[in-house]
């Protein structure tokens, strides 16, 4: 057996899922965006934590019903 297969088999399932997701993160995020939009939600993309905070603050100044539904 090849060493990579053995090492992978010995990892906890959660670690394998995490590694696979991170390896294909762009596709996973695009699929998540489509799913959220199909459910009537809005997706905001941020380059970093500061931009994400700004989006949340600006969103909170308007209708907060979206946030209440998520909580």
Summarize the structure.
The protein is mostly helical and 71 residues long. It is built from five helices and no strands.
Can you tell me the residue ranges where pLDDT is under 50 for at least 5 consecutive residues? Answer: none
Q: What would you report as the Rg, rounded to the nearest angstrom?
A: 18 Å
Mean pLDDT: 80
> Helix count?
5
Report the principal-axis shape: elongated
Distance between the termini: 47 Å
The succession of helices and strands, N to C, reads HHHHH
How would you explain this protein's 3D organization?
The protein is mainly alpha-helical. The protein is built from five helices and no strands. It has helices at 3-10, 13-23, 25-38, 49-60, 65-70. The radius of gyration is 18 Å and the shape is elongated. 0% of the residues are buried. The mean pLDDT is 80.
Ordered list of secondary-structure elements with their pairings:
Blueprint: H1 3-10, H2 13-23, H3 25-38, H4 49-60, H5 65-70
Key terms:
0% strand; mainly alpha; elongated
């Amino acid at each position: 057996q090849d060493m990579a297969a053995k090492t992978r088999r010995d990892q906890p399932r959660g670690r394998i899922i995490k590694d696979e997701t991170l390896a294909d993160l762009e596709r996973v995020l695009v699929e998540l965006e489509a799913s959220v939009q199909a459910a009537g939600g809005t997706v905001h993309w941020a380059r970093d934590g500061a931009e994400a905070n700004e989006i949340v603050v600006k969103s909170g100044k308007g209708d907060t019903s979206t946030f209440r539904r998520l909580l």
